[in-house]
Design brief:
This protein is α+β, with helices and mostly antiparallel strands. It has 4 helices and 7 strands. The chain is 28% helix and 32% strand. The longest helix is centred in the middle third of the chain and has 15 residues, at 85-99. Acetylates the N-terminal alanine of ribosomal protein bS18.
Length: 155
């Protein structure tokens, strides 16, 4: 598996995976992915050969020492989950955030224990709760934060 910059030709595959991964919570369309790329956000894909098996995106605003990054999405094909693709995608996003010395934020469903554990292992802590964040399901989300690399509390 390789993590590479997401190819524009793969955004339809991303939207297909969204339908599978987030059926009850307004999955992103290919147009949403195209808009993210058009805005210059950082997107990577996990590839087995030419096959896209996962994707992840990050937005960075501001400049060090006040830069902030937000993980917009991470998704892995269910047939390939549990094999390190999600971890590799997250690490690629965090490397980009670290280049900018950005504090990184994300939201995660409160019932997604696997993702929460992965984020904790990568230095994130829960800092807030967003009630009914995911729609239309109404699921709650934790807001998690990872300090900027090189800070007193960062890696």
């Amino acid at each position: 598996m390789q993590v590479l910059k997401l190819r524009r030709s793969d955004i339809k595959r991303c939207a297909q995976l969204e339908q599978v991964l987030f059926p009850g919570d307004d999955p992103w369309s290919w147009q949403a992915f195209a808009a993210e790329l058009d805005q210059g956000h950082y997107y990577v894909g996990a590839y087995l050969g030419d096959q896209l098996i996962g994707y992840a995106g990050l937005a960075v605003v501001g400049r060090a020492p006040h830069a902030e990054a937000e993980v917009h999405t991470i998704g892995v094909d269910p047939d390939h989950q549990g094999r390190g693709a999600g971890k590799a995608l997250l690490r690629a996003l965090l490397a980009r955030a670290d280049e900018q010395r950005a504090t990184t934020f994300l939201e995660v469903r409160t019932d997604n224990e696997t993702a929460i554990a992965m984020y904790r292992k990568h230095g994130f802590e829960i800092v807030g709760l967003r009630k009914r964040y995911y729609q239309p399901s109404g699921a709650d989300a934790h807001t998690m934060r990872r300090p900027a690399a090189g800070t007193e509390t960062g890696e």
